[in-house]
């Protein structure tokens, strides 16, 4: 029932925002929100775990790593307010999955089309490096998201860690995994039992985009492929 699913998703979002399970992450995200950086010193930071966002009936699911300290941890929305997000939303707009290429804050008018964004870890970690225990603690949220987003046909994972984290959550959700463990590489495609296609991409971190490991054309190619796989549903209207 669509209404019941929407309510379950809202309850999950509320549970994410109120989570305090990982002491190191709680302390760090609050410290960053309190001390800030000079360029954002007049802003009120979100400073809490980040729920996913997008269309609950989406056919495309994007799984990232974790919020950035002065990006999502500041703005309160995944991939918003940092360079990685700028790179991501330009590609989503060009492929038809977003109504605009800009992403400055959570009330900027951005809307996702046939797309939902989440992450393996929902709190900003020190040095962008969650611990194994933190990944483990946060995985049940991703498992529940997989179960609730029942229309997903294509999953795009950002980076090797996002790729591995999604596959672990997929298995924990009771879904079958390929007989042979898939290996991460950019543009790798893995057909999961049940007809869901997994597409792997390098993460749009500054390290990858500034060195040319991931170009705008390479990244856009991933989302154009996703659009084709779901029948062009991401095309701009």
| Shape, principal axes of CA atoms | globular
Examine the secondary-structure arrangement and name the CATH architecture: 3-Layer(aba) Sandwich
Work out the number of β strands.
6
State the CATH topology.
Uracil-DNA Glycosylase, subunit E
Features of this protein?
6 strands; Uracil-DNA Glycosylase, subunit E; globular; 41% helix; six-stranded mixed β-sheet; alpha/beta; 237 residues
Describe this structure in words.
The protein has 237 residues and is an alpha/beta fold. It has a single domain (2-229), classed as Uracil-DNA glycosylase-like domain (Uracil-DNA Glycosylase, subunit E), CATH 3.40.470. Helices cover 41% and strands 11% of the residues. It has eight helices and six strands; from the N terminus they run ααββααβαβαββαα. It has helices at 2-17, 23-35, 72-75, 83-95, 132-148, 159-172, 206-210, 216-229; strands at 53-54, 60-64, 115-119, 154-158, 189-192, 196-201. Strands 1-3-2-4-6-5 form a six-stranded mixed sheet. A hairpin with a 3-residue loop joins β5 and β6 (196-201). The radius of gyration is 17 Å and the shape is globular. The mean pLDDT is 95.
Task: Indicate the topology.
Elements: H1 2-17, H2 23-35, E1 53-54, E2 60-64, H3 72-75, H4 83-95, E3 115-119, H5 132-148, E4 154-158, H6 159-172, E5 189-192, E6 196-201, H7 206-210, H8 216-229
Helix pairs in contact: 1-5, 4-8, 5-6
Summarize the structure.
The chain has eight helices and six strands.
